[in-house]
Amino acid sequence: MARAGKVKIDRERCKGCALCSAFCPKKIIKPSGDVNSFGYHPAEVRDLKNCTGCGICALVCPDVAIIITRKEEAA
User: Fold this and answer.
1) Where along the chain do its domains lie?
2) What is the three-state SS of the chain?
3) Which end of the chain, C or N, has fewer beta carbons within 10 A?
């Protein structure tokens, strides 16, 4: 079974530090072109179908703005 993940980023908590982008092994998280209510460019997932649900982005997020959910898929 393959592991699939879903990344949920709280745009209002994210300060746009880009640590999640730097550490994502699939390089699917990038800074948004939009700003949140605090004026930061929050992170966004650009290619969710390639997310493995590894959780590295959530571990390195200093603002605890990322939640990972995982589900098993048939291989």
Assistant:
1) 2-73
2) CEEEEEEEECCCCCCCCCHHHHHCCCCCEEECCCCCCCCCCCEEECCHHHCCCCCHHHHHCCCCCEEEEEEEECC
3) C
- Under 8 Å between Cβ of 63 and 43: no
- C-alpha 55: how far from chain center: 8
Tell me if the domain spanning 2-73 has CATH number 3.30.70.20. Answer: yes
Structure-token match 């745009």, residue found:
11
Q: Per residue in 32-67, pLDDT tens?
A: 999 999 999 999 999 988 888 899 999 999 999 999
